[in-house]
Specification:
This protein is an alpha+beta fold.
Length: about 160
């Protein structure tokens, strides 16, 4: 997790033991939902309010396929379920867990999120996101990622 490139570091002065963690390179201005419906307003507000996770936050997947957002502070994972952030924004609850098992970092999440927005979370188009127009009515093409959408509507709204 540590890199020799000191310019890519974030100095964390928080109550946890983490002193330096690699920055993830995410610029909040690049994922502002005012720049396009594909970006989650709740995720952006959460990141904007919680500056430390925005600077170093990573997305992890557990054995059950659940996505988590946060950072590692061994032996703890300081994380929140990503779908909770997408649904509740700044009201999402974070925790420091030592019993989540092995979480695998989704290394390409940020580049994919920059490219296709919320389709990085839902590439199969199974979730109905409340905000923003996602599909062209005539063709079913996703306006965020360009893929064709088959109407497999889910009753879950995020």
């Amino acid at each position: 997790m540590k890199s020799e490139n000191k310019s890519n570091r974030v100095d964390l002065r928080n109550p946890l033991r983490v002193e330096q963690v690699d920055a993830n390179g995410v610029n909040l201005a690049d994922i502002n939902p005012k720049g396009g419906d594909k970006y989650s307003p709740n995720f952006w507000k959460y990141l904007k309010r919680n500056g430390i996770p925005a600077a170093i936050g990573r997305v992890y997947r557990d054995k059950a396929g659940v996505l988590w957002f946060g950072y590692e502070d061994a032996p703890f994972m300081c994380v929140t379920r990503l779908m909770e952030i997408l649904c509740q924004g700044v009201k999402a609850q974070s925790g420091a867990y030592s019993n989540l098992g092995n979480l695998a970092e989704v290394k390409d999440f940020w580049p994919r999120y920059l490219d296709v927005g919320r389709c990085a979370v839902d590439p199969d188009h199974q979730i109905h996101f409340r905000e923003g127009k996602r599909f062209l009515a005539q063709t079913g093409e996703c306006l965020w990622c360009g893929k064709q959408h088959e109407d497999n509507s889910s009753s879950v709204n995020h």
